[in-house]
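dumping these here so i dont lose them again. two proteins, back to back, each one seq then structure tokens. dont judge the mess
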Amino acid sequence: MEKPTVFYVFDALCGWCYGFGHVIQKFEENYRGQVQTEVLSGGMVTGSRIGPISNMADYIRQTAPRLTEITGVKFGEAYFSEIIDKGTYISNSEPPAIAFSILKEQAADKPVTLAHSLQKLQFVEGHDFNEV
């Protein structure tokens, strides 16, 4: 019998997706073997939306505490000091989407873990996805 497929669409730059990451990880753990999980990287920041993080910095600073309150995820100091406060980071969903696609080929059995790990690179460690 064919397993049902659950599609999880995320974007590595989306704070709310980061906040939801532990929920989808728990879902995958609880239903492993019963459902197939397909993870797709969306394109939240593409085309005319690509630009310096400074354009969204005030919104992010206002939203982050609420996101933490609702979801329990923490943002690392490096995210604020290296990404938000500097303001020069260019938000673009394409580089992390490409990285996710490549990594997913290498570890096809762990797409949810890979997605959440990518998000942690930015939101906890302050990694710039535009740097190789």
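---- next one ----
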Amino acid sequence: MNEFYEKHRDDSDSLMIKRNGSHIFPAHFHRSPEILLVNKGGYRITVSGAEYEVRGGSVAVIDSFEVHSYDARLSDREIDDCVIIFPYKHLSRLQSYGGEKKIKHPVIYDSELCSSLLLLADTHLKDSWAISDAAADLFFTLLDSRLEYTEAGRSGEGNLVRAILAYIQDNFKGDVSRRQISTALGYSEEHISRVFHAYLGKGLSDYVNTLRLSYIDKCLASGDGRAMTELIYEAGFGSQQTYYRARARAKEHRFKT
């Protein structure tokens, strides 16, 4: 799966609200909490490899760094939905904040809760920051009362994960070995590797290769015109053999999930 890190989401201090749009998004993730409210209509979404149907009267909550995608609409007849991405400072309002816990079930089937949250989104979250903060408190209080949590086995180091992802995003075409990342960020290689895997569920090299493969795919799709060999080396692969191994591994992963 060619998921990507939405760094701009975590760099933003602004609340993002999209009402009744065509919410079809490829696999991505960010630290900021994301909420999908569906009053009418519905979506098929994927969260960390598991598929869910979010129908009318449902709320989907995407936890920090969970890979997720909006795959398809379930109906185009009646549409009343909303996607909200809060600045990650609001993450502290969820019990999963810090990484020790994670959300057990991302979808809540509760039409009354959905209507209440949608009303807050429409009437208060877009107002002044003072009102929005108060509304956000109420929003997450209502939400948190219905969420179940489980132990995450994480170390509470979301800031480090974000720093690793940002570094890789900026340098994936060059040397982004575990040693290089640990030197740049000032942590041991073992700590970098352990924390990254705990949050993302994959190794550093697999994630780096995902970005490189995605870069090549985008170049080919745009009609770039350059030879495949040139693209392979420009993307950061050290050899054609390394590229083909990474491609085969990515296909194997898609088949398993």
